[in-house]
User: Fold this.
Amino acid sequence: MQKCMDNSADKVHNEIKQRRRFVVNTTIARHTTSTDSGGASFSMGQSKSKMLSPDAISVKKKGFLYYLKRDWQLSALMLLPMAFIIVFKYFAYTGLSVAFLDYKIGKGYAGSKFVGLKVFEKVFKHRDFGKAVANTLLLNVLDLLFSFPMPIILALLLNEIRVKWFKRVTQTLLYLPHFLSWVIIGGMITSTVFTLFVIPVLFLWLKKHFPQRI
Assistant:
């Protein structure tokens, strides 16, 4: 995409240069034909060519307000996402002040007492703090050792499956949790199990023990 943008920019730049040269050549031709004497026309043409050379013509750079006025529709589309980011990404940092407060739900942020680093001191002095840090580091190391290579190994194993229908079913079952919530998948499994197994067995049990009610 960046290459396409660079190519389009180069095309526009070359087109601007060609138009400048066309304007310069046209101006020189008009001045040379309008003069009577050859020497005067030649000297005037040289002076005009020096005055109107492409390098001497400077394009006035447009400011920010120009592009903002020209593309105000695009800027207006950015207002809602920017407001969302400011409110939910930056204003949310004010909630970090709860770490320095003796927070009470009834009093809120404004009514809670400021205690400074006492909460951190309490956490660091806890007898299980070192064990918690060690467990956290151990779990992260194990996650790197096992979670990183497992998808690669799984992909290699799937590539070795020769039965196409089994390969497709396996891929579907493996990728399904990435597209659906675990709550939905759990509901589907529970509903299937109840429909195929639990409800028929319960119906037969009720029919056996309470035939007059069924």
About this structure: The first strand starts at residue 101 and ends at 102. The chain has eleven helices and two strands.
